[in-house]
Design a protein that fits this description.
single chain; mainly beta; 4-stranded antiparallel sheet
């Protein structure tokens, strides 16, 4: 019996060692492949930090630190230059949405706490990761969207159909506004007005001080994911494949443009052009006044990432695992960078660095690479 146990231990050890060696070799080969395929790209990998998020939480860069949440219930603070973790904050829920950072405080909500924990909005000290206050949004089983902070107030939507306005300093409720559906997009606040979409198929404009409705526009299909952009007009995408431009004062439709797929990408408006991705695999550039197509760029999969324009280059990600850099005027590809997973987070460009999340890439059913937070340095030309 003893000899049998010893033999079994030896066999188990050999198998474990072989699996470990195989995994290391796979990782080495994958790293070499990633470096080889990106060798002629005018950016270089500064660092890559492995987290537990699937790429939906968009990183926020503030005062030399990158903040991002994940589905393992952590909020991370990572040094933007070295990629080293400074601290992480744990809560018993997915920190699935993107945080907001204002005046040294991080505001973040929960995305489905499960059947036991309340859905809350949290304020966390950016220096040490300690909780400053927590505000209950809804009962267990609910989810919140990403918060927006403006003029001392935190605005956040929830799956209980309410938009909440919470005092940023004290965590006390100022007002709440009820719609007919869940609100999981990030509100946009401009000139004292809050703009947001609801799953009741409507885009809303609410007075930021009083919580009273100024107008609403019915789209005809739910608007849960694509947050509006405001630049003379209100621009927003919808699950019915359309991009809308709405009059900022009256809430009347100015124009509509139809794509070939659902839109959860947020629009970005720069220089009279609206950039937005669609699940038909295209990034679109539309004239902001007329809605006419200027150009569109095809990728190998859905474009859920929100584009970022810097130095006349539009950066965005695709579910085909590439980060793309496209010429702002022509829509011609300048370069693309291969990552280890789908890119659905918004792109952040700060001080010649590009930050974004790349989701886990699964192989053989259960094993996966990542997910990762990337920092790419744009090479000097």
């Amino acid at each position: 019996m003893r000899n049998f146990v010893e033999a079994l231990i030896k066999i188990t050890f050999k198998i474990s060692l072989a699996l470990l060696v195989s995994l290391v070799l796979i990782m080495v080969c994958f790293n070499l492949y990633e470096r080889t395929i990106n060798v002629k790209v005018p950016v270089k990998l500064k660092w890559r930090y492995k987290t537990g998020f699937y790429g939906y939480s968009t990183p926020v860069v503030d005062d030399g630190i990158v903040y991002v949440g994940d589905q393992l219930n952590y909020l991370y603070a990572i040094d933007k230059d070295r990629g080293k973790m400074k601290w992480k904050y744990y809560e018993s829920y997915f920190i699935f949405t993107s945080p907001s950072v204002v005046d040294g405080v991080i505001y973040v909500g929960s995305y489905y706490n499960g059947p036991f924990d309340d859905t809350c909005l949290h304020a966390i000290d950016a220096k040490n990761g300690r909780l400053k206050w927590s505000f209950k949004l809804a009962d267990p089983g609910s989810s919140s969207g990403p918060p927006t902070v403006a003029d001392g107030t935190v605005f956040v939507g929830c799956s209980d159909n309410y938009l909440y306005a919470v005092d940023a300093e004290s965590g006390e409720l100022k007002w709440r506004f009820e719609t007919g559906g869940s609100i999981l997009c990030r509100p946009t606040v401009v000139d004292g007005v809050v703009y947001f979409g609801s799953r009741d198929d409507c885009l809303y404009a609410i007075d930021a001080n009083s919580g009273e409705m100024k107008w609403k526009y019915e789209v005809g299909n739910w608007m849960e994911c694509s947050s509006p952009a405001v630049d003379g007009m209100v621009y927003v995408g919808s699950n019915n494949s359309n991009v809308y431009a709405i009059d900022i004062d009256t809430g009347e439709l100015k124009w509509r443009f139809e794509t070939g797929g659902e839109i959860i990408s947020f629009p970005t408006v720069v220089g009279g052009v609206v950039f937005i991705g669609s699940k038909d695999n295209y990034l679109y550039a539309l004239d902001s006044n007329s809605g006419e197509l200027k150009w569109r760029f095809k990728t190998g999969d859905n474009v859920c990432s929100t584009p970022k324009m810097a130095n006349e280059v539009v950066y965005f990600g695709s579910n085909d695992h590439y980060l793309y850099a496209v010429d702002y005027t022509s829509g011609i590809q300048k370069w693309r960078y291969k990552t280890r997973g789908s890119i659905v987070s918004s792109i952040v460009v700060v001080d010649n660095f590009i930050y974004f999340g790349s989701a886990a890439h699964f192989f053989r059913g259960k094993h996966h690479w990542g997910p990762y937070l990337y920092a790419l340095e744009i090479k000097k030309q």
